[in-house]
Description:
Layout: E1 12-14, E2 20-22, H1 26-48, H2 56-77, H3 91-105, E3 114-116, H4 121-142, H5 149-172, E4 178-180
Antiparallel strand pairs: 1-2, 3-4
Helix pairs in contact: 1-2, 1-4, 2-5, 3-5, 4-5
Amino acid sequence: xxxxxxxxxxxxxxxxxxxxxxxxxxxxxxxxxxxxxxxxxxxxxxxxxxxxxxxxxxxxxxxxxxxxxxxxxxxxxxxxxxxxxxxxxxxxxxxxxxxxxxxxxxxxxxxxxxxxxxxxxxxxxxxxxxxxxxxxxxxxxxxxxxxxxxxxxxxxxxxxxxxxxxxxxxxxxxxxxxxxxxxxx
Length: 185
């Protein structure tokens, strides 16, 4: 089987079950954003390979669980309304994320200001992944009732996890955080 099929050469793509839609369809943007976020998570993890800090293994373990779940969220978004969803997001996936957020936040200082994305390359990549997940949420909301509400909750919570992961990694690798102060110079 070849990687190129030529079926998208005229600007269309297939959803799950074969329905053809324009590549600029909001559904394609939603699941494409999940795919993009997943790639950024992979990049963030790749930047951790040569690092060591207490909790590194846990970060890798958590994000390696999240990546297939994010793929499943994208698959739900790629499934046309009324069709059976082959891979589903479940309440326990959300609970897993919330538990991890609470655990990592307990290790961090209070957040009193907005922070500027950046820090260690891994932390910065987690920040980018967070913003891409936020885009996926906006696109999914645009689909309205065609989207399983649990997918919206999952993606929203995932963006929170990625924000906390960025803070956690930056904290443990000594990159710190740069606050955005309310007054402009």
